[in-house]
Amino acid sequence: MNGAVNNNAYLYAAYIVVWVVHLFYASTLVIRGKRMKRETRELNRRSNISI
Amino acid sequence: MNTLFKVLAVLTLLLLGYGFCQAMYIAPTEATMGDVQRIFYYHLPSAWVAFLLFFVNFLASAWYLIRRTNRADALALASAEVGVSFCTIVLLTGPIWARPIWGIWWTWDARLTSTLVLWLIYVSYLVLRHYATGGQVPVLAAALGIFGFADVPIVYMAIRWFRTQHPQPVIGGGEGSGLHPAMWVAVLWNLAAFAMLALLFVWIRYKQALAEHALEEAHAQASLNYETEGAQ
Lengths: 51, 232
Hints:
The structure holds 2 protein chains of 2 kinds. Helices cover about 80% and strands about 0% of the residues of chain A. Chain A has 1 helix and no strands. Chain A has one helix at about 10-45. The longest helix of chain A is centred in the middle third of the chain and has 40 residues, at about 10-45. The termini of chain A are far apart. By secondary structure, chain B is mainly α. Helix content of chain B is about 80%, strand content about 0%. Chain B has helices at about 5-25, 40-65, 70-100, 110-130, 135-150, 150-160, 180-230. The longest helix of chain B is centred in the last third of the chain and has 51 residues, at about 180-230. The mean pLDDT of chain B is about 90. At the A-B interface, helix 1 of A face helix 2, helix 3 and helix 7 of B.
């Protein structure tokens, strides 16, 4: 990488932003999945309805 | 999680790793912009994946209006949510690339503005899905998904129809446009990697949306049982 113009800070910032957004979204999926498992367990416990 | 998902997840990680190497080290350095042009290898594939996901949302929304199935509704929601995530990346990486090249973070030209409108349309879709209550919410969301998709061709054609600050298209842009073949290789590897990542995200979110439907029905059934037992 030997650029004509040295703006590497912007390049690194952009790549970091991409992975922050993807990791943030992945973490929302994990959190939602855990919450749903907890809700399902709770519902099963309360009403003996199996889903 | 089944075996196919695990295989796809490993394949996606490998693709993302190789795509990163292609973008950062293998693709040639652009003559005038220098290394900062390598943002392009994440910016463009993210935009194409977002367009593809909004198209899936459009099809699933139409399918839902015709058949009213939970599967169509779940697919529409999953594709819109992941599409917004990729569109957010486009809207963040664009200004970071623009600042050193144009000297400004943002300008209200047709391509940038229509992309921002596209993002706002699908964020509205998600807000509607999250906060509105009642049985007609999926129908309203499907209608928004169908009409909202009209902005995608406008975003795509904006740099062809209007004079914009945004660079000219790399496909079908006429004389003087296009990419070096080695740059195309980096674009296509990253496109494959992001498309796979999007597929995995949509897969997980689709399953979750179906489970949410099942949970809602189970909650309703539990309430009904409780009321029936109370009345006896």
